[in-house]
Amino acid sequence: MEKMQLRQEELDIVKQWVATGDVEVHKEVITENRTIVVPVTREELVIKNGDEVIRIPICEERVEVVKHPTVLEDVSIYRQQYETVHHVEETLRKEELHMETRGNAQVKQEI
């Protein structure tokens, strides 16, 4: 008795992650010089005695600059995955058994 194996091809689909690009996100600090006009008040004690005037500074406003950060805007940065469909077309082969008889050969089929 001889045995013959009949074979057919089947598809195995393998997916793998491949880097298609790179993104670098960073903040850039931009500097800007500003000139602001601030009125400053001062107070003096004035003494008049005839034609003579004496001025004595008592107090004055001093300008103090305080910087504080404020939120300009919120920026969301995240990765998002989405799925598309890729159509794969491939030709598969399959073996089938065929018999040819010559002469008076009779084939009996057993189940």
TrEMBL record:
It comes from Ectobacillus antri. Residues 4-48, 50-98 form the DUF2382 domain. InterPro entries: DUF2382, Stress_Response_Assoc. NCBIfam families: YsnF/AvaK domain. Pfam families: DUF2382 (PF09557). It comes from the Bacteria. This is YsnF/AvaK domain-containing protein.
